[in-house]
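DEPOSITED CHAIN:
***
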Amino acid sequence: ENPWLLVAMSRFLNVIFKTFVGIPVYDVSNSFRLYRGDLLRTISPEYANFDVLEEILARIIWGESGQSAKILELPFRFEQRKFGKPKRQLIVFGLQFLTALFKLRALRSKYRS
């Protein structure tokens, strides 16, 4: 239900995250996730903005707990907001996104060394 530009931007950002950072998921920006509690309790997130969602996902996938997790993605239909206005500001979001890319890339290097 979103305008084509938002859908295209979301797809583009997901390809960039998957390619540049190496998180093997189709929708890295989806914040509707379910984690195993035992795995979630083993990690210590450091990030503070929206990128904490990607950090948690990356730390679980890359095996901070000593065991890497498999990811299962189930599609769902995202509907437009029915009430209120979005609080997202494009410039702030863009800067946070770029920062997250480089922070997660550095985090990946830490796990691979």
Remarks:
- The chain has a mean pLDDT of 81.
- The CA atoms of residues 21 and 101 lie 7 Å apart.
